[in-house]
């Protein structure tokens, strides 16, 4: 799978020429049309290598974490809010543009009746799997063909909360930089490293990975509390929402773990199962 994102991006130097400030009042302005395309079309996001983050807190977190901003759209009427004007000033100082917009423009971009006061256009960032820093014995989540943006965003948020070192997306997955997925991360997209690989790339990386690969499977024979998480770098491999793990990926695992269930449900929701696995791995590693 190609790697469209800028894996080597560096924050702009403070010597960058300052960005421009423009007022935009019409949804048919070409700048607005282009930003709306980023919200709506995965292909456009991929080609441009950009994505949107809504909300002042998210924008400030992203700037703080050194993510590269291209454009900041702000509600002009709120610019007397010190944090918003600070974000706008920082954006301009970094050499990116600020669009001062009205309610109509913000609503059109976010497709919400009550849009946030700031929408940032950021450069996408992923890293190749060999660059993942497992720390001493860290845990990474790998997701086979995850389809649902809400699940993906929730998993990135949960991975952040559980101290996971990265999330790997394997095969044809939903776009982590889509508006819905980014919303569901609640800002964790800016703190959890993401890797995107094809199944073949994952398998070739796995061949050189000296840690533990724990697959989760409805027919797994290992109780999920058994694996020795935390003794080695660990990857938790989770299956697709409809069909679970591919046979090839399941065959590459050291163990196939199952979370015992009561009742009549066939399986747990993917994000819920990932949360159970991540916090079990964390609990077990903290005991060591
Ligand atoms: N029909 C699918 C199947 O048979 O695999 C169900 C997939 S389930 C909704 C999505 C993923 O969540 C699974 O592939 C697995 O990774 C994880 N999962 C859900 N319930 C689980 C359980 N009880 N034990 C282990 N993993 C589970």
Automatic annotation (TrEMBL):
<dbReference type="InterPro" id="IPR001537">
    <property type="entry name" value="SpoU_MeTrfase"/>
</dbReference>
<dbReference type="InterPro" id="IPR029028">
    <property type="entry name" value="Alpha/beta_knot_MTases"/>
</dbReference>
<keyword id="KW-0808">Transferase</keyword>
<dbReference type="Pfam" id="PF22435">
    <property type="entry name" value="MRM3-like_sub_bind"/>
</dbReference>
<dbReference type="InterPro" id="IPR013123">
    <property type="entry name" value="SpoU_subst-bd"/>
</dbReference>
<comment type="similarity">
    <text>Belongs to the class IV-like SAM-binding methyltransferase superfamily. RNA methyltransferase TrmH family.</text>
</comment>
<feature type="region of interest" description="Disordered">
    <location>
        <begin position="1"/>
        <end position="23"/>
    </location>
</feature>
<dbReference type="GO" id="GO:0032259">
    <property type="term" value="P:methylation"/>
</dbReference>
<dbReference type="InterPro" id="IPR029026">
    <property type="entry name" value="tRNA_m1G_MTases_N"/>
</dbReference>
<keyword id="KW-0489">Methyltransferase</keyword>
<protein>
    <submittedName>
        <fullName>RNA methyltransferase, TrmH family</fullName>
    </submittedName>
</protein>
<dbReference type="GO" id="GO:0005737">
    <property type="term" value="C:cytoplasm"/>
</dbReference>
<dbReference type="GO" id="GO:0008173">
    <property type="term" value="F:RNA methyltransferase activity"/>
</dbReference>
<dbReference type="InterPro" id="IPR053888">
    <property type="entry name" value="MRM3-like_sub_bind"/>
</dbReference>
<dbReference type="InterPro" id="IPR051259">
    <property type="entry name" value="rRNA_Methyltransferase"/>
</dbReference>
<dbReference type="GO" id="GO:0006396">
    <property type="term" value="P:RNA processing"/>
</dbReference>
<dbReference type="GO" id="GO:0003723">
    <property type="term" value="F:RNA binding"/>
</dbReference>
<dbReference type="Pfam" id="PF00588">
    <property type="entry name" value="SpoU_methylase"/>
</dbReference>
<feature type="domain" description="RNA 2-O ribose methyltransferase substrate binding">
    <location>
        <begin position="52"/>
        <end position="128"/>
    </location>
</feature>
<dbReference type="InterPro" id="IPR029064">
    <property type="entry name" value="Ribosomal_eL30-like_sf"/>
</dbReference>
